[in-house]
From TrEMBL:
Key words of the record: ATP-binding, Nucleotide-binding, Phosphoprotein, Transcription, Transcription regulation
The keyword Phosphoprotein is annotated on this UniProt entry: yes
Domain Response regulatory: 7-126
Residues annotated with 4-aspartylphosphate modification: D56
Any Pfam family: Response_reg
Chaperone recorded as keyword: no
Protein name as it appears in the record: Sigma-54-dependent transcriptional regulator
Gene3D superfamilies attached to this UniProt entry: 1.10.8.60, 3.40.50.2300, Homeodomain-like, P-loop containing nucleotide triphosphate hydrolases
Domain named Sigma-54 factor interaction: residues: 152-381
Amino acid sequence: MSKIACKILVVDDEEDILLAGKLLLKQHFATVKTTSDPYQIPALLQEHGFDVVLLDMNYSTGATSSKEGFHWLKQILQLSPKTTVILMTAYGDIEIAVRALKEGAADFVLKPWQNDKLVAVLKTACQQQSIRVKRSAESAEHNNTVYHYDGFIGVSQAMQRVYQTIDKVAGTDANVLILGENGTGKEVAARALHRKSKRAAHVFEKVDLGAVSETLFESELFGHAKGAYTDAKEDRAGRFEAATGGSLFLDEIGNLSPGLQAKLLTVLQSRQIIRLGTNKPRPIDVRLICATNMPLYQMVREGAFRQDLLYRINTVEIHLPPLRERREDIKLLAEHFLNVYRQKYDREGLQLPIETMHRLSEYRWPGNIRELDHAMERAVILCDGNVLSIDDFYFAPNEDRVSQEQGVELINDQDYTLETLEKMMVQKALVKHAGNITHAAKDLGITRTALYRRIEKHGL
């Protein structure tokens, strides 16, 4: 008969009880230790890490109050919270049993015990202990996943929401629009979506639309036939065909001109492409992921971006928060990049002191994670000693530059009127949510209609 891999400690002041217990239990369990001295419990717990302790309630001659048992129950749970404790006594009392369970005991056994019943109680305790250990390991794995989530590093609530959204949508073929400032990790999110999808075994094709010229757009995305234009010396598949079965990531989609938006929309609606220079439609099978740092909703209102195209590409939206809105992640990211560049530049002894870390956490990081990455590499290269100081880092002289570039007005001490403050808060909410009226209104605590009125009122 195979024994259960469980470590059990029996504590009782009667040697014959210990002997009987050991002879019985060692037939069923891998490790059984005994002691008649409860003061040995701390050392034994530290040495063996018992899964279960079978603990007598009384040790002094003639004692029946169970006071000593409750004392050692408390000690065991403090020293080893994961250990299961089962109490036993010859003086059964329902009130004592109830109190024992309330104070943390898993069960209560009367002496003299019935062998079958005692073994059954201990087997149950060992099984429950095994389940707790497994769940603890799964929880630790989950926490590690949250900390290092498929290319991301972060534990902030803002990033938790991003992880949850990716997990929910990855297994579908829904089109996803990723919004966020430069350097927030939009491509990282796109690749995570692909790796977690049913298309993970197929290609992930990336196209930077900001780098594709107007004249080459159709050839690049839809392909061309030989002779379609001067330099078309052979038939060539476009990016849509190259991504067949996989995912197509269109980065910087906000840069498309109205004419190119119309061509892209036609392809997405028909689910087929026509190579330049031919008339033959070719079906496409891709999962579309788009990204931009531009305020598409504002662009729709201004007529710079087609609303019907926006509806096609944003079945699900993922908003990546800027680094200044997830400051609790700055330390994790800084330490990660420091470890990377310690190894790259052979600076293993380099340290990041608290005061420098404090300054990094206070800075706004207008370039987000990309800026922090480059700043850490530069600091590691330029640092003369073994301690990174504030002087080793470059901080933009005007940390409010990003707000000004994005159209968020900065106000001085003499301009705190309700009108000005309202305009500033509406601007900030729109910038934060990349022009998404629904999310901005929710953030401000007002209705969409009320937000539209304020946008019109302030000329935004």
